[in-house]
Amino acid sequence: MVVGKPTTPSEGNFFREVILGLGMRATTVASPQDLLLRIIRAIEQEAARASADVVVIAIDTAEQLTLKDYAHLAKLQNHFLGSSVQPFFLFIHQSNSVIGGADDLSQLAPPHLYGRFFVDSHPFTGLLWDIPTEDADVQDACDVALAFRQLDQVMRWPDEGGKTYTEAFAPYAYSVGWRLEKETEAIRERIENLANQGNYPVPKDWLMASFNQFVYHLLTKIAAGRNDFEGLTTQHIDEALLRSAYAGFESSRNRAVGK
What we know:
Blueprint: H1 11-21, H2 32-50, E1 54-59, H3 67-78, E2 86-91, H4 102-108, H5 111-117, E3 127-128, H6 143-154, E4 156-157, E5 163-164, H7 165-169, H8 171-175, H9 184-198, E6 205-206, H10 208-223, H11 234-243, H12 246-256
Parallel strand pairs: 1-2
Antiparallel strand pairs: 3-6, 4-5
């Protein structure tokens, strides 16, 4: 669910946003207690429907939440103390989205809120260019190479009965042994070249927003329908990076973190 930021912050308006996020209708005349009761009943009904004792409530754009909002959620959680059903809140937020976001709030939160909502966190990245030390014994290639491997060996077009993406869009190149995974280092070199030209640090990961567009352009616009396609050239890679707005995404990311 996505919890918006009410124009007028209040307990009632926050619970209305939660109700809307849960896909229900929220009336403007209901009291905060009535709204809270509707949320409690919705959680209990979902638990009964799924025969579960824990209901996970994922809150996206959580960088918009304030400490008062977390206090409202604590009030909601209190109603399940001693109950056989428990809500589990999963907050999804951009760490560098706003000043005073979740990263800053964790340092300001009083103990009863910190202990409930700020103890555990898991940072998400794009596709990493290097294998994390803790994964070295279970991962034989970096995330980018593994993503290309999925297109080479696992993911299929146009359905599960079709050929792999690489074979479907570049049949001749595939037949003579070309694979996207083999191009990983060549692509990385062109990305490093872009970083040097843009005077920003070489990224440690590849944002999915531009990666998906890169692959789309590469397979459907460069490789597809060409019997003479045997593999990527520097020009091909640069073109796909341009069409995927790679540099624009990285520029925005570096501006957001003040680099």
